[in-house]
Amino acid sequence: MSLTLSDILALEGLSAMRLRAGGQGLQLAVRWYYVAENETIADWIMGGELVFITGINHPRDEDNLIQLLMEGKQRGIAGMVILTGDAYIQSIPPRLIALADELGIPLIEQPYLLKMVIVTERIGTALVRSENALQSQRDILMQLLTGDYPDLQMLQQRAIHQQLDFTRPLRVAALRLEGIQNLFRQFPPEQAEAWLQQARRTLRQRLQQQLNQQGNSFPLVERGNMFIFLLPDEEDDFYQQKTWLQQWLRELAEGNEGLSLLCGLSAKVQQLQDYQRALSQARQALDLSENLRPAQRISDYQQLGFIKLLSAINDPALLSDFMHDHLGCLIERDRKSPWLLMETLETLFQENGNVVRAAERLGIHRNTLHQRIQRIEKLTGYAIGHPQFHLNASVALTIWRMSQNHLREHL
């Protein structure tokens, strides 16, 4: 687990530092500390810093302090420390305290009598120790996930030494940022790359905060464009873990920052040698989540059912032929909305044939839906309620949703 602001406030010798606002952010991970010497800080921080404001080298009135806090929020700082005393900043303005609470940024007061050299030495030492332990934990987890380890028993001993409990059942969670391809299509490479890196820093910080709040002691690792971590799966514990994760992903997608993640979950893992396969399962569920369940944000490998069989077929032509054999007649390429009948049929199946609910979901009149049903039945030669048609069409619709070609055409 990364060093948090809560950990820092508990360090020996720092008891004089007092939290004044933003307590909801105490589980934010601290990457490093930064002592602000200039009028602004935006150009000097990257996210995750604990920013110290002394007022020694630059006057700090209320407006400037508020400006610094807003810049810190934009850049994703972990917290802000204001040094107070008679000489420079006499007290923390109430307006700054209120803003820190509103933004969720921990605001800490440090008296000038507590020497800065002591504070930075204690924090710096703790950060180095934490990072060294965290790097070892990441290394252990990555070796398990990739299967690249010389000796499993030795790796198990390292895990015990680093206080990683792999004796309980766990799940592998893989998250991926959405819309990267569209980002680079719409903006110049330099601008798109800058946004992407900032988005990754922001997501890394927020995800680590959530894991800290859940008491998750396993490290967060990154591989390519994925964030990977472990979730406990014991009795009702996994349901609670999955619930907070799904809620967090939805809130993130509904925010105004353009950040959106999809998640794939593996089956339960109980043996160390099974983590490589679990990562493959999580990635498979993640890919299917993007195609089949984007609104739910999470796809659970254990709940994929027959989709696992479809995704295991190596020849995509077999799947494509099956889809076209059964529902290809519904794809009207010469129309403005070539997928209209496919989407109508899919909605009908999702609503268990309830015409009223299907029409409401599609945003059309029931008479219009009945007309589409008649077209579907005429083109396929089957009544929608026919059992064999329902089975084949359900599989064909799933293949249609899984198809990357469909996604490209649909965009």
Automatic annotation (TrEMBL):
Q: Name one Pfam family in it.
A: PucR
| Record keywords | Coiled coil
Q: Which domain of life is it from?
A: Bacteria
User: What positions belong to coiled-coil segments?
Assistant: 265-292
Q: Where is the PucR C-terminal helix-turn-helix domain?
A: 341-398
Q: Which residues form the CdaR GGDEF-like domain?
A: 147-288
Residue ranges of every copy of the Purine catabolism PurC-like domain listed in the record: 7-126
Query: Which family is this sequence assigned to?
Result: Belongs to the CdaR family.
Per its record, how is this protein called by name? Fis family transcriptional regulator
Organism of origin:
Pantoea coffeiphila
